[in-house]
């Protein structure tokens, strides 16, 4: 009895893997603008963390180490 051609072998692609990936990203993936926005948000957050650390005296650029020299 025939199994109707069902098996584990995938169907052949009619487009290249690159084109398939591009189409997948266009449908399901994040767009490039949101990736740029996310990167900018991370950069701003890091800058804010450094600024707050400097205000609290937790970050000293001149010493070259992260120790706070407590005696």
Outline the structure in words:
With 71 residues, the protein is mostly helical. It is 51% helix and 0% strand. The chain has two helices and no strands. The mean pLDDT is 78.
Summarize the structure.
The protein is mostly helical. The chain has helices at residues 17-27, 32-56.
Helix content: 40-55%
Low-confidence stretches are: none
Helix count from the secondary structure assignment: 2
What general outline do the C-alpha atoms trace?
Answer: rod-shaped
The value of Rg in angstroms is 26 Å
Biggest β-sheet, characterized?
A: none
Indicate the proportion of strand residues.
under 5%
Mean pLDDT: 78
Distance N to C terminus: 85 Å
Instruction: Provide the succession of SSEs.
Output: HH
Structural class: mainly alpha
**Would you count the extended β strands for me?**
0
Topology readout:
Elements lengths: L16 H11 L4 H25 L15
Characteristics:
71 residues; mainly alpha; 2 helices; rod-shaped
């Amino acid at each position: 009895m025939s199994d109707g051609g069902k098996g584990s072998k995938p169907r052949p692609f009619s487009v290249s893997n690159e084109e398939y990936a591009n189409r997948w990203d266009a449908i399901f993936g994040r767009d490039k603008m949101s990736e740029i926005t996310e990167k900018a948000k991370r950069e701003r957050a890091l800058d804010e963390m450094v600024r707050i650390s400097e205000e609290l005296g937790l970050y000293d650029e001149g010493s070259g180490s992260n120790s706070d020299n407590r005696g």
